[in-house]
Amino acid sequence: MTQNRRFPVRLDLKQGTVDMSHGSGGRAMAQLITELFHRYLDNALLAQGNDQALFSPPPGRLVMSTDGHVISPLFFPGGNIGSLAVHGTLNDVAMAGARPLYLAAAFILEEGFPLADLARIVESMADTANQCGVPVVTGDTKVVERGKGDGVFITTTGVGVVPEGIHISGDLAQPGDAVLVSGQIGDHGVAILSKRENLGFETEILSDSAALHELVADMVAAVPEIHCLRDPTRGGVATTLNELAHQSGVGMQIREEAIPVRPEVMAACELLGLDPLYVANEGKLIAICPGDSAERLLAVMRAHPKGKDAAIIGEVVEDGLNFIQMETRFGGSRVVDWLAGEQLPRIC
Amino acid sequence: MKYVDEFRDQKLARQLAGAIAAEANPGRQYRLMEFCGGHTHAIFRYGVQHLMPPNLRFIHGPGCPVCVLPMARIDQAMAMALEHEVRLCTYGDLMRVPASGRRSLLKAKAEGADIRMVYSTQDVLRIARESPDRQVVFFAIGFETTTPPTAVAIKTARAEGMTNLSFFCNHVLTPSALRTILATAGPDGVQLDGILGPSHVSTLIGSRPYAFVPEEFQTPVVIAGFEPLDVMQATLMLVRQLNEERCEVENQYRRAVTEEGNLKAQALMAEVFKTREQFEWRGLGFLPRSALALADTYADLDAEQRFPVDIGEPKEVKGCECPAILRGVKQPTDCKLFGTLCTPENPMGSCMVSSEGACAAYWSYGRHRAPAPQAQAL
């Protein structure tokens, strides 16, 4: 019955590559969408086949966030650009204390990109979205000429809903608040770096890329008075703390000794002259809550697998200059500044 | 982390801080220059100055290879990349160093120059092997420490008969710069009571080349490792020399530095390089016998000869105090541009670029800090 099939010759997902026709709007694009994107990302809203997804939101305030992913390498220990594109946006939505509902994804493909790699990426994206219970309900594909992209860029957008009584924002930190981190820092940046082609560097460190919305759900249910949540991605913990201090008009005093870092990550940073405080994370969060709620929040975080190594790393203080001061493990004291320039090129 | 944590032990740091505070004579000043950017970085990163008594001050020396590279050399490299269309390979720090006209290698790259960031000379050799039809130039920079790897790369290029790789040599020599600093020190310049001697450089050249410092300039030297406890122990050794009115070269970094240094590396350097009659250092001017060029037998691999470029007079940024800061005469906070027009995001001077540069270290770790309180003796 071959003549009845819409696309008589199947897409070659083993040897085939992306060409300009896959972005032209014609039959080749339709085939790519059907045989690759819909095949993996299958869900009822996507199956409507429209240029948009139609749904009724649940009651509550909606949040929306978007994130472009341009990483190199595309595949790294512990994940790939597909899983990262899901985790990254889910986490940005969750950092409002929200429950993520739906995702949208836009792909920019470079001419010549292997379809086999694209299939691996989309399959991983679908698996990740399934595990997180948040479907990709609408999307878009474009193709750029060879040399004008870097394999694949993925932009994801997410919407979520914030429970009643939760007010989380980067400008709500107050003197006396406690600063917590959900686990060991720096894993993602070092995992990515270990796979850069020009670093002959072998390590067992896996990216921490993970969705944090379930951890956040437990946290806001138990401690609804949380003031700030943010995931320390690019620029690492140091940059995130500076952002929050600046937004809230406060300073912070942190203790280096309290910040969890794996010895392998510490060793890699030592070798490369990096500071783990500035290395990217993709499955960690910073939480700021009233000081007297800190121990309760810490216990809730530690009870969840994605927060089992959580720690209280410092407190919010009054400081008109919005500095992050750190008591070093050595016993000295220093300012922890924003990341200047870039510590590693293109990490997320 | 084993073999690292031991050198960052808080308890030992407190003991050393206590000893320094107890032994430092409150009736005198201890103005100690740490020559190397590595020391500057450790002092700031670990808050070492904070642990010192108020009459002991670290003066930051010129030992940051990116900081002392004159603008003309960056202009020259940029011209090679743009006019001769070579593939220019360079270490990351150099990318943001300001060149004439507020340009930089990073901006030249954005304009289409083929500039690659590398982590080692092995990357350079790989890039050259992978692109035999393309001329590749390595922007070689650094003190004695980074020189042997360049020498090995030059020998490898020769052995493999590579015709598409050449070297833009900017390797500089520590003793000459140290001599200049000391010769210009005094009431009109920087006042120095002692020198924390280079760490990694000394593993190569040994401790002997510093003998002239006590002999000719009556200034004690203690060669110090780059870990914070190394810096503190070496500081205590300098305090003791000054208190006892001794003046000699001492070696705190004995686990890595010997008197004669690494003879094999020295032989390699002597084979591949020759000493330039003079070389320009940012802040210090033209210093005699202070830098290396490719030896005559390797001259065919010299990028300066292969790709001659004509650059105009370099245009320094007005008001930038990097030259005085590199001589230790001024502090970063003395510069009008510091923190206003010049920040790590938008460096106007070279000292703001590298994390070893005094301005960047001040900015990142200590800016606006009130004077350090007196360390508590335990």
TrEMBL record, chain A:
Using the record's annotation, list all stretches that form the PurM-like N-terminal domain. Answer: 49-162
Q: Which residues form the PurM-like C-terminal domain?
A: 174-321
Residues crossing the lipid bilayer are none
Which GO biological process entries does UniProt record here?
Answer: protein maturation
In terms of InterPro entries, this protein maps to:
HypE (IPR011854), PurM-like_C_dom (IPR010918), PurM-like_C_sf (IPR036676), PurM-like_N (IPR016188), PurM-like_N_sf (IPR036921)
Superkingdom of origin organism: Bacteria
**Which Pfam family, any one, appears in the UniProt record?**
AIRS
PANTHER family for this protein: CARBAMOYL DEHYDRATASE HYPE, HYDROGENASE ISOENZYMES FORMATION PROTEIN HYPE
User: Which family does the entry's similarity section mention?
Assistant: Belongs to the HypE family.
Identification of the protein by name: Hydrogenase expression/formation protein HypE
Q: Which organism is it from?
A: Thiorhodococcus mannitoliphagus
UniProtKB/TrEMBL annotation, chain B:
Keyword Metal-binding on entry = yes
Keywords linked to the UniProt accession: Iron, Metal-binding
Keyword Iron-sulfur appears in the UniProt entry: no
The record's section on Pfam families has: HypD
The record's Gene Ontology biological-process terms are:
protein maturation
One example GO MF annotation: 4 iron, 4 sulfur cluster binding
Recorded hits in NCBIfam families, A to Z, give: hypD (TIGR00075)
PANTHER family tied to this protein: HYDROGENASE MATURATION FACTOR HYPD, HYDROGENASE PROTEIN ASSEMBLY PROTEIN HYPD
Q: Which family does the similarity line name?
A: Belongs to the HypD family.
What is the name of the protein in this document? Hydrogenase maturation factor
